[in-house]
Known about the structure:
Elements: E1 2-3, E2 10-11, H1 30-39, H2 47-61, H3 71-80, H4 85-101, H5 111-119, E3 123-124, E4 136-140, H6 151-165, H7 169-174, E5 176-181, H8 187-190, H9 195-207, E6 213-219, H10 225-232, H11 238-243, E7 244-248, H12 251-255, H13 277-285, H14 287-295
Parallel strand pairs: 4-5, 5-6, 6-7
Antiparallel strand pairs: 1-2, 3-4
Amino acid sequence: MYKTMENNENVEMPSDNPVLSALDLGEPPEEVLDYARNEINEDPDTRVQIIEDFRDLIYERGEIEPHRTDDAFLLRFLRVKKFNIRHAYKLIRNYYEFKEANSEFFENVDLEHLQSVGDAGVITVPPYRDQTGRRVLLYRLGLWDPKQFTTTELFQATMLILELAILEQRAQILGGIAMFDLGGLTMQHFWHMSPVIAKQIFDIMVTSFPMRIECVHIVNQPWIFEMIFNFFKPFLNDQMRARVKIHGENMESLHEDIEPQFLPKRYGGVHPDYNYTDWIDYFNATEQIGKELKSLGYTARVVEDDGDR
């Protein structure tokens, strides 16, 4: 069933959850639209007018120059802020300020970056959703070799993944889940951490991207985790602290939030580690995704349909 992470209210969920390395780029199913009405104040009768009012506010303030102001783009910011125009405006302003302050995360980035980090297993998105209908962004940071990927490259891959994820209207409405597997983390990794990087991670997950992170799960953390977590504590209010769940090696604790049938076997689930190349092949072969990425300043190699596919 679809359920909110905070109040555990339930609404009906579709019975199928296919394993498919593809985004759902169509209109959300009725049960997701019901969730939108009940949980994020999305009223089909007033949505068009609210988007128009939001667009007018952006132009009136003149503080940012968004590269897009079409309905689909602006709707992402309204949905994550439950159609509060004032809060949505602050988010889109933060979004552009973050991009300007961290331009290295967005320059010369293409799907090859995503391919290499995915092949290393450091960052992945399983090709299925959890029982709430949400995608899971999985980091296995113990696999990260700082000599192979810089922190900037990890941020580049993260931002590209999030830009792709938010193309799904389901994700705009339901939000997503982040999971950090810290098994194998060493002092070598710790030396690449800093309060600045912690603030950048916090900005992405909380203040500066139109994706609502409903919960952050941490598993297999070693003794140095507390040292790393100290970087984040100054940024976390009570609400955010409640969304961070630390499980250690206790997979039964994790299963209280994500049911085993929606997890890889390594976390007591049933799924193998699926081939990340399937995602990249899908992205490269989908014209709509290529156009979206180019509109956001990324590059994508769109494969034309030559009859062989």
